[in-house]
Predict the structure of Glycosyl hydrolase family 1.
Amino acid sequence: MSMLRLLPCALAAVTVLLAPAAAEERCFHKDFMFGSATASYQVEGAYTEGGRTPSIWDDFCREKPGLACANVADDFYHRYPSDLKMMTDDGLQSFAFRSPGRVS
């Protein structure tokens, strides 16, 4: 894997590690909530499980040679209990997740 591809991962890791320290140093309104958001295609995986239907992104990545499909992604579908625990352990107070491929 090239260094250029690793750069976003390294920046994300530094952001996650420094976010609690940065939050303590700043002054936020008492009702401010720290949170995170994602979409199913970015993290979910399990593209043939649980009644999931193909999305336009599934079709798109299969039509274009060389594009990586998110068949496994981060495997949030199977790992969500530990992922949610990690978010609460890190102090996140909200989480938005969109999964239209599983809504029928």
User: Anything to note?
Assistant: Strands lie at 35-39, 94-98.
